[in-house]
Design a protein that fits this description.
Blueprint lengths: L10 E3 L2 E3 L3 E3 L21 E3 L16 E4 L2 E4 L8 H15 L2 E6 L4 H12 L5 E5 L16 H14 L5 E4 L7 H10 L4 E4 L3 E4 L1 E2 L4 E2 L5 E5 L4 H14 L5 E4 L5 H9 L4 E4 L1 H5 L3 H16 L11
Parallel strand pairs: 3-4, 3-16, 4-7, 7-8, 8-9, 9-10, 10-15, 15-16
Antiparallel strand pairs: 1-2, 5-6, 6-14, 11-14, 12-13
Helix pairs in contact: 2-3, 3-4, 6-8
Length: 306
């Protein structure tokens, strides 16, 4: 008797194959090995690394995390060992885990971005996520993602130095004209877009009578931002129907992930929810599969209602 196969959750973006559409978001999953004793990491579709810079960075001083109702504020500041250490020590361990590897590339200058891209292009990572949307650094980061001209100025030279790896650009929800920034990145040669990064936000310690974070503002993530992130994914998919979009922002259950997939996202990333419940992504994968069986979907691409 033949075994009845379940729905196919796999998909591909620019030649990179993912076993399912659930990806660990940058900055929330370390380099994957940190979670191997807690969850079955190999079940994930992909892992996006912490933000990587050309040289090591210590990150921001002072408070780095602050809880809010239905959200989490962070001001980490790209703490990482630098690309050379990542390529030598972290990447080999990450590759053994099994999921597709997406390197989140960050930088404070165009030169830093392009040199980092050159090193990653020669590595075994599967894809590069260009971070032009982090609100927690004083130079680079979100400053490149707020206006289309600035986005183009970094995405274009990065795309030129990439001979082997596809490029996904992570967009900022703080951009005054997100569609224009997305169009600039696509014109620069981006193979995919991911959105959203965190929202610029503020918290004040009423007892110390000063902002909680040394950098004054910080990035807000978590369930509070999900409906806004979902709206932005919907709008971008409407304007750019052929560009793969990875939805990010407040996803903490399969129903949240399904909203993004139905809105037209090719995949989703889970971030803050992993801190609360490390098995969130595994449960989301199971929930998506159950939904597809319930409604008779055979492949993940059929879910989009767009």
């Amino acid at each position: 008797m033949n075994k009845i196969s379940g729905p196919d959750l796999s998909f591909a973006v620019a030649g990179v194959n993912f076993k399912n559409p659930v990806i660990a978001a940058s900055g929330t999953f370390g380099y994957g090995s940190e979670y191997t004793s807690i969850i079955d990491v190999k079940k994930l579709g992909g892992i996006c690394t912490k933000g990587l810079t050309l040289m090591p960075r210590a990150g921001n001083n002072g408070m780095r995390l602050h809880e809010t109702p239905a959200g989490l504020m962070n001001s980490i500041g790209w703490e990482n060992p630098g690309l050379e250490v990542f390529l030598e020590k972290e990447l080999p361990r990450l590759r053994i885990l099994g999921p597709a590897v997406i390197a989140n590339l960050s930088g404070s200058s165009i030169e830093e971005y392009t040199e980092g891209a050159r090193l990653l292009d020669a590595s075994s990572v599967d894809m590069i996520e260009l971070n032009i949307s982090c609100p927690n650094v004083k130079a680079g980061g979100m400053s490149f993602g707020l206006e289309p001209e600035a986005a183009l100025s970094v995405a274009e030279p990065v795309r030129r130095v990439l001979s082997h790896k596809p490029l996904m650009v992570k967009l900022s929800p703080n951009a005054p004209d997100l569609i224009a920034v997305a169009r600039a990145c696509i014109n620069a040669g981006a193979d995919a877009l991911s959105l959203v990064n965190t929202f610029k936000a503020l918290a004040i310690d009423i007892h110390k009578r000063k902002p909680v974070f040394d950098n004054i503002s910080a990035g807000l993530s978590g369930p509070a931002i999900r409906p806004i992130a979902l709206r932005m994914v919907w709008e971008l998919r409407e304007v750019f129907p052929s560009v793969p979009i990875v939805g990010v922002g407040g996803i903490s259950a399969s129903v949240d992930a399904l909203e993004f997939l139905l809105a037209g996202a090719a995949a989703i990333q889970v971030g803050s929810a992993t801190f609360v419940h490390p098995a969130t992504m595994i449960e989301i994968i199971g929930g998506i599969e159950e939904y597809m069986i319930q409604y008779g979907y055979h492949s993940i691409g059929e879910l989009s209602i767009r």
